[in-house]
User: Fold these one by one.
Assistant:
Number 1:
Amino acid sequence: MGYSQAKTKPVMIKLKLILLAIFILALSIRLVGLGSIPASLNRDEAALGYNAYLLLSTGQDEWGKSWPIFLQSFGDYKLPGYVMALLPLIHFFGLQDWVVRFPSALSGSLLILPVYFFATNFIKRKWLALTVPYLIAISPVFIFFSRVGFEANVALLLFMTSLWLLVGGRWKRDLAALVLLFLASITYNTPLFLLPFVAVFIAGMRGFKNPRKYILPVLGMTLLFVGMMAVLLPVTAQKGSITLLSDETTWMNWVTFRQSLSDWQKPLLGSRYLYVATQMLSNLWNSFSYSFLVEKGGQHPWHTLPSFGHVLLSVYVLSLFGILVSIKRTFLIGFLFFNRRIASLKKIELEFWLLFLTLASLVPAIITVDAPHATRSLLFFVLLVIWTVIGLERILDLKILTLKPLNTTYIQVVLLSLFIISTSLFSFTYVQAYFSWSKQEQASWQPGLSQALRDPAIVSADKVAILDPEGYAYILVAWYAQLDPKYFLETIIHQQANAFGFHYGEQVGKFHFIVNQNDRIPTETATIEWEEAEKKWVVSSY
């Protein structure tokens, strides 16, 4: 064994030990109290869990379809990946809340590995790249999404692993990456919509001038994209109703805007597609906003802890710094190249394609009406973390650090230590708030239905009315009452689809789901109702 190999071996051992320590940290934060915080499953989690239970017991979903390609559920057409992952867990551990969330928690913990290896392609100092998995482990968005049964979180792990393999440039890795991209695409929609951009990213990273280097993965992704879009057409058609091009409110706003223009302005500024493009640019800008990323985290209560954003302040500042410096370098070196002052663009190629992927990662979010949207932007959050460490590396490279007699390495260690300590303290504040998140503060999750269903008045009643204005409580009742699958399939009654294609539950077993008290029939001798003022489910008997 040569000297360099002997020197490399202990370094690799240290690297593996550090990654193992970060993984254990991430896993601990994600698994502790997994079934109790949040205090209740949301309707999507319950739908995933109970449909997996139905498939495991009867081979049918809640609509009585045998092993469907996608699950209609209440009309949102869930992809099969997450449900398939739940089958063995429910078989061995039963209908428990933590079981539904476990695939997401495990994926959020394992995510540190492919993200680290992917990041080493863009960060010069390999030891500094270890900051990336640490930030993934402690960032609010990755903690929160890993502790809820989000299909997007599992798909993110598969997607990032495929990106890491694809950057490697070997045909065996390419084949493995294509398999993972397929699995990601049958788990959540976003990876499928990103495939064309990933194909361009990989071709650019490997060099457009030599097609032999990228023809296999690009051709594979093209076939996968076309094939999956054809198979999942009913799913994408339903999801299309929330895009800016098909949303009725957006269309009406465009009509109002066009009417406000003068006759000569309408041909220039009144185009519907131009209006939608401006909305997309606004959504893109808002996706980078302080309010969305640091302060509030968007409007959806299932995506973030109240009064907290998605990323830490230091991550936000340094990631924007890294991106802005990279944009400046890209334009400067590009200008010098085109003016023949330098002979190559290699100094900016990697950063340029990372910038491209960063913007592309937001496409699935910014084309929808509820942008900025965290679930469709998880890849973006990963890339922000990588840009954070790139920004940190830029600071360590500043000329002021080379002043004598100060030791450059010493200053770099001090600065890195200060960064890690500050981010750790901010993260500790978030984690502390998360685990002290009381049931009273979780009103949007409506916890306590399980206890209400076990109330003696409910258990003894022949018929029960449940006030359910939203129409999704039927699947939560099926999960928390642990209804027998055959009984469920024999008694379930879905309402007709509404304008958005959603089917609300009307009846399952002895439970009748009504909009208000006037809809209760006399034979229903007990009711369950969510009292917003008291923040709890209230049982009444008649």
Number 2:
Amino acid sequence: MDKKFLQRIKRRDRVARWVITVGGMAIIASVLLILFLIAQVTFPLFQRPKSQLAGQISLPTGPEIAAPLVTGLDEYLESTFVLRADGSLQYYDLDDGAELARDQIEPPAPGAEVVAAEGLGHLTYGLSWSDGSLTLDQLKITPKFDGAGKRSLERELHRKLSFPPLAEPVRQALGRLDSEGRQTRVSLLEENRILVEQQLVSVDFLGNETAESHSATLEEAAATTITALALDHQGKTLYAGTGNGLLLRWDLRELGSPQLLDQVQAFADGRKITALGLVFGDISLAVGDEKGEVSTWFPVAPAPGEEKVLRSIHTLTKHTAAITAFAPSQRDKSLLSLDADGHIHLDHMTSERHLLGFEAALPLQLFGFAGRGDGLVAMTSAQELLVWRVDNPHPEVSWKTLFENVWYESYEKPELVWQSSSASDDFEPKLSLTPLIFGTLKGTFYAMLLAVPLALLGAIYTSQFGNARLRGVIKPTVEIMAAIPSVIIGFLAALWLAPLIEKSIVALFLSFILIPASFVLSLLLWQWLRQREGLRKIEKGYEFLALAPVLVLAVAIAWVLGPILEQLLFAGDFKLWLFNEAGTRYDPRNSIIISFALGFAVIPIIFTIAEDALSNVPTSLKAASLALGASRWQTVWRVILPSASPGIFAGVMIGFGRAIGETMIVLMATGNTPIIDISMFNGMRPMSANIAVEIPEAPVGSSLFRVLFLSAVILFIITFVLNTVAEVVRQNLRKKYGRF
């Protein structure tokens, strides 16, 4: 052979080898880059929150200066303010600590001073005055822009409500104004009596106002000392804690008729409850005690149909001293707690994460949370204001909320739930990935349950028993099935197949019995008929021509008998019987639908690869087996299948990966219900469909956005692990059964 020709061949081989190597490495690098990019979006979920001291302001002190009672921040973190006992409101710049302005809250009576203040959120405060009156005052801070586009903050005091003085001494007073105009004042009097005053002002169509007033005294806790009170923002539920660990709850919705709902011994050792506070949303109650423990409670029914009672749900980070005050976030379920030693903890209720701790050289006394939850101001015992900037983007995400049972508000028990959005702002995000992982595996299982037997049996018949001309028709036809867009399959499954099966579910189950039975009976009959010389010719690769009418007839019989059996066995309604007897609902888009739809999409892949592997087994092995006296089936079972097992296994695993990653079919045909139920009559929500549903509405950078990318990482890892295990198994099969 010409040497130049050989050199040219070798040179081309080297070039081809380098091109293939570079291309393969580029593909691997691209896959790793994709994994890196989606993991990069996910990584901030697991970063610890951060805080940074942004300012220190020394307040003026002296005997002539009234004591500070309230401190807070504007939502732009540009200024802080201090409310003093004389009703003066002073604003300070965070950059240089200079006093910006000063306002005076008008007292309800001349000479009255503020004796206590309660933060109600959104810079609204309930102020108790020395004359026994109570006012609700709000500080409004709005941005203003001049002609040059420069922004400034405009501050305005607004009195929302004023309650008249009481004739007797008041230990603590709480006031509320709900969205319907109902006014509620709760006053803790001497001897542990609680006075509830309510007034509803209504306006008729002529504009005339009518006031309906009621008052009632609560004496259920008179035998002990009330140490803490809390009232929800609508003034409809009142909580009280006592010195011996008793927790009480009243319903104030009926004017003038408070109803005691709970009287619970919160702690077995009877320790003192020192602070109460409502978490954002007014469903959960934060309880602090003299040992520094913080827990959250909300009503739960002990059993279905019974009245709800308060129950301890979450336990947050313990303090070193008694809890003195709470401040909830106005954005999520985060909660600030202050103890008697002057330490502040920031925890998230749902995830039970300890987010941050704040402390200073001197004990902290007063504190306020910024409206956006990104800032904290606290005053030390030396009347120095400390301001922290808080970076806490994903407090609700933890390993527990993603993969473990969590007890959510208004739920009867801890559950695995995915529910990313709601109509209310105080929604508690439920971002458990476990139902989505389960849905992915469930949909794949039911799809493979149908696809694997049909694809493998079809491949065995086509390659080993079918006629060559038959193979030339069947294989291209099945391969064309793979070219059908998945959206078309999902569309047909949702709008045509699902209603059809819903109407004929009993007929479908009956066909699962009649088809195998008719198949076995037809084979027995065929063994008798094949003794005739004329029928033996059909056996040479065209047996299905005799079998197909039998299978069609079995389906037709099942279709006819299905309604009759449903009427006889299930009173004409299988779905109602299923719900009454088994407690299972029939979802029209269920696992049966997904097994047909997704199985239809997976069959061509498994069939093609398995058929190629079976056809590539050397004919010498088959001839040797037949020559030794083995039957055709014995040859297939003992020789062909083991030799082709690496390829068959590879086809099954590729089909498995195809089923796991499918999006459009499962999106349209599963019902998208993120529940954990193995029943074939219920739907599911796989991770791929969940990403397609949620990602268009997820704000970029939000917890939902990053959790969706985390689910993509998990899907990637599952596929990678499956493919790796499949390759290891395939290589072991190749070593055992040779190179085929």
Number 3:
Amino acid sequence: MIESLSLKLGPAPGEPVISLLNHPAITVFVGPNNSGKSKVLQEIYAACAQGSRNNVILDDIEFDALSPEAAQAALDAILSKPRLGENPASTNVMVQIGPWRAQIHAPYYLQARMTPNAKDHRRSHFSEYFVQHFCVNLNGANRMALVQPQQKGDLKQPSTTFARLLTDDTKRSALREVLHDAVGLYIGIDMSNGSQLELRFGTSPPPPERTVEDETLQWMQTASPAGEVSDGVKAFTGILTELRAGDPRIVVIDEPEAFLHPALASRLGKQLSKIASEGGKHVFAATHSPQFLMGTIQSGVRVDVVRLTYKGGVGTARLLANADVAAMMQDPLLRSANALAGIFYENVVVTEADADRAFYQELNDRMLEVGSAHGIPNSLFVNGNGKDTVHRIVGPLRRLGIPAASILDIDALKIGGTNWLAHLSSCGVPPAQFQQFQNQRATIWQLLERAGADPKRDGGIALLTGQDREAAENFLDDLARYGLFILPCGEVEHWLPNIQVPRNKTWLHNIFAALGSDPTSPTYVRPAADDVWAFVDRVAAWAKNPSRQGIR
């Protein structure tokens, strides 16, 4: 149905905008809060269901055009004989799509199906006569309503989702298997209550549902109605029931993970993707859930992941390569560091160890409380397992367009060789500068060693004086421009020297106790303009700079 979709945004201002060839598949929009994810879904739905073109993020949707013969066949497929009191004009016909029945102007319908992308009334006719009846917006409220009782109607020509499910043993069996595997319950459709069909949830498979035998009635009586199961089960069941047994061809769903625990969100992502691929549907989802995103990628079908950002009045859109997203799910280090969650933040800060992460995150939180001029906004703090693993986290995040800053102790200047080059590469230093930075690193480390003390534990670049100190400061500034921050004090334990605490293995516990936890206490430590506070603001300045080096 959808041939292509284009946005008005690209990876950066002035760069080519995002355009997607939407073969039946799932498109997932990710990004920080207020980045436009919900907005683009609203615009996609309005463009499909109403023919709207007044958009902020969405540029256009192109639909498949039919030949005259195919358009006539499509009209013939929905024709319905006039009923008593229905007297269509000579050029009009009666049509029915599911429960929708109307009199339409046949020439308009044919024109709309042959020229769906016209800029005139034919686009609105295309939406009115066709697309809106196959387009569904599954927001938080209506996805719960999907499991409520529905009218039975004429089972010979089922028009409701439950009626279609009841009359299709294959779909019902497949859905029942998926739901039982996910939530441990079997669904059954109860047709014993007058003109309604109701969903029931039992602990055993139901007997044949199309009968009113005693065994079937007993199962329906003891099984739980939809109102007695959890919101998560309702949402999961409602979404999959609508997609499998309903007839939507375009599905828009905001925060599909709502009401679901992480494991169920992952299952939903996988099932939505498979259903979209197998059923020739287009699913557009916006999510904050790494688990849902992982489920879509792990489904094995085509998934387009688009990361949106909006900052300082400038929006961006970047199409993420499935291979890069999958690599973050498959690498044990990246999984354990929860690096994929960085997709949903504006910035990521990567440290060597968990204690470093906790310390910088706490200080950053205090700085953000002071005001927007300080601290790193909307940031995820993660850690590797030692300095040699930091680049393995930073590199994949930057390839996804996420500003990820490296924070390393000063002995990172000691490592040299391929490990040092890996840090430079992950931070986007141009390869032509590798040798220059390699030589500078070796020179500065030699100066530190000649100072006669341990650079990491005894003062960092403060061990140097005069032009040697100036050279070290200049080199750290050069690295910082690429988001690679080397601690000038040596190691994290030596920040805030005026706070008298033991600098040993229990340092984090000691420093947190000294910092205080009650903002109303006179001993609570607040941000200052120097020391570690100035260092964090340097990281923030790089993260906030739209012209930062190392990543666009």
